[in-house]
Amino acid sequence: MMFGLCVRPAWTRTAVRKWLLLWLLLKLLALVCTVALFCELGIYYAVIVGCDWPPLKAPGGQGHESSSPPALRALFLADTHLLGALKGHWLDKLRREWQMERAFQTALWFFEPDVVFVLGDLFDEGKWSSPEDFQDDVQRFQMMFRHSSNTELFVVVGNHDIGFHYEMDWYKLQRFEGVFNFTSAKVVTKKGINFVLVNSIALQGDGCSICEKVENDLLQLSLALNCSRQLDPSHSNENCKEKEIFPASVPILLQHYPLYRVSDEECTGEDSASPEEKKLLFREKYDTLSLEASKKLLWWFRPRLILSGHTHSACTVLHDEHLPEISIASFNWRNRNNPSFLLGSITATDFALAKCFLPRESTVGAVYLTAGVMVVNLILFHFHFWQWMMHYLINKHKSI
To answer: By C-alpha distance, which of 127, 300, 117, 286 is closest to 214?
Structure first.
């Protein structure tokens, strides 16, 4: 009887092995789920939480935020480049759109901006898209960049939306304008602040029908803005009669193409162009606006700030040694490893800007790679691979 008590049933070892294997699978599942949740959701919160709205300086120059007037909170991004039906692998499309949606929705939830501006190249293939493909691209964009009624979203047209100047036509332009309520020369006024939205693709100065209309519309808008800034009820001005009245605020210029500059050589920052790209000279009417068109815009509107996109890299330049222009880096990881966007606290007389970086794709890749190594090691330890390897090496050493 005593001998019988010491005998272990054969099924006990099998059951233990099954439970150990189940425990391994549970550990692997927990690790994989934790890493996936962090890389696909949590990392956006972890990174964006380090950003904040920039404070406006008080009139006396103190370092505290001014309490009056209330600032408009604006979020600026550029070059989302949603892939269409013609180019790119479906997995690449799915991955990039998920990244941008998560980043934008996290920023929207965290910052609750009053207004969002997207500075062109919403799509990658808008200039080639069929009506059906374009509608599909629009629906995906609207899904990714959905927002509450407390936030307004405005877009500026880019060359990938309607084509470069030689590809642009009325059909593509009107298709884009109809969907996004965009006009090639438009003033958006919020809290007494004037934003001028410009179709920079049409500023070629070659007399094309679209170019002539856009330039004329911009000229009329500039007259109306200048009349509003100089308006005096006690004096009549023939040139200002029947002009739309805007708040007397110096405008902010929003467009896709940057104003003319020779290159990005003077640009600095971790999201500026690479050293190789900085050596390349920009081509007028392709990489930037022409010098002539740039001078026109500056003369017509005399803005206090210019924001642009197109180059996919960030840059800050001063025009006429005092007027800042900021080129915003691409929001799409397909174009760069470290996308970013701008947060702006803006009043009718002042503004403050802060850059917010998104998670580096290389960081996400490193986390996944580390997790993969951990998974492999857990499996190998479970099957005593390292123990077997040590015994093998020791025995081999003894035999020598």
So the answer is: 300
Q: Are 305 and 322 in contact (CB under 8 A)?
A: no
- d(Cα 347, Cα 81) in Å, to the nearest integer? 31
Q: What is the pLDDT of residues 307-339, one digit of tens each?
A: 999 999 999 999 988 999 999 999 999 999 999
**Cα 230 to the center of its chain, rounded Å:** 36
**DSSP summary character for residue 197:** E
In the chain, what percentage of residues exceed pLDDT 90? 67
CB distance 254 to 156 below 8 Å:
yes
Q: How many residues does the chain have?
A: 400
- Residue 57: CA atoms inside 13 Å, Cβ hemisphere, count? 9
- Tens of pLDDT, residues 200-256: 999 988 888 999 999 999 999 999 998 888 744 544 566 777 778 899 899 999 999
Give the type of residue at 395: N
- Surface-to-core class of residue 59, CB atoms within 10 Å of its CB (0-12 exposed, 13-18 middle, 19+ buried): exposed
Q: In what order do the strands lie in the sheet with 351-357?
A: 152-156, 115-119, 72-77, 340-346, 351-357
Report d(CA 121, CA 185) in Å as an integer: 17
Q: Give the separation between CA 316 and CA 50, rounded to whole angstroms.
A: 22
User: Which pair of structure tokens corresponds to residue 64?
Assistant: 């505290």
The CA distance from 184 to 199, in Å, is: 5
Q: Would you say 294 and 259 are in contact if contact means Cβ atoms under 8 Å apart? A: yes
